[in-house]
Amino acid sequence: MDIELKKFNSFRIESKSDFFQKIKTEKELLSLINKAKKEKLKIIPLGAGSNVLFKKRVKSALLKIDNKEIKIKNNKIIVSAGLSLANLLNKCLKNNLSGLEWAIGIPGTVGGAIFGNAGAFSQSISNFVEEVESIDIETGRKIIRKNKECYFDYRQSIFQKKKEIIWRAVLKLKKEKKKKIERKMKEFLEKRKKSQPIGSWSAGSIFKNVPLDRFPKKIQKELKKIFPQKKLIPTGYLIEKTGLKGKTIGGAQISKKHANFIINTGKAETEDIEKLINLIKKEVLKKFKVKLEKEIRIIS
Question: How many domains, in total, are found in the chain?
Fold first, then answer.
């Protein structure tokens, strides 16, 4: 059967799948894992589809994690992986809990954010994770990891290497006055609106920012003058300097507002976006002698 995936990815790309299921309970999850394994399909958990690019046909078993429970105990939040970051922030605001204000405007889920160690404005979700509960795809057993056991790094976590599905997490925040939390959220949202193509169909940042020490010494010196306090060089700057900002292929465009975003202008296909990704990699390598690493996942 053909399941249309357009509404399940923030690029709004036309894509179809033979195996797509929403999961609300552990029982459903284990049952569908077994079904996918019997059909010898690769299993891919899906959050809000905000950091992915689907191929025209996805042959893997897509399990959309849709559990949305949330409990608050003192300064801790026990939250299901399928809850959106927007709903989590609303709950934080109502309960005077501060720490995640920087995440406002990120169209993802808690599980997806932990998987990719999502972050913005020099913050990341790993700073607030106390523990993560996941389900092992091979055995079906629960695994509980403390923060250090998740091996968080810049846009990285252990879950990118393990055959596990993030199911829930415990986040530790701090109490703050509601007005101060609201003010922080407003400030972060204004910054995001000024620098990013909010409202466009995109998957967020396409590439990770680049550690300064990966560049040749001569280029490092030039970049240090421009970014004296940064150890990570913004990829948007590198792309902009290649002259590709605003470049269009088919229905896909490198954003005129932020060069590390590719947007669907209305009728983009997967191939259009992939061509822009490859073009960016080629031109940045030519100009800055450095290889870019994708932040988004391409799912087939």
Answer: 3
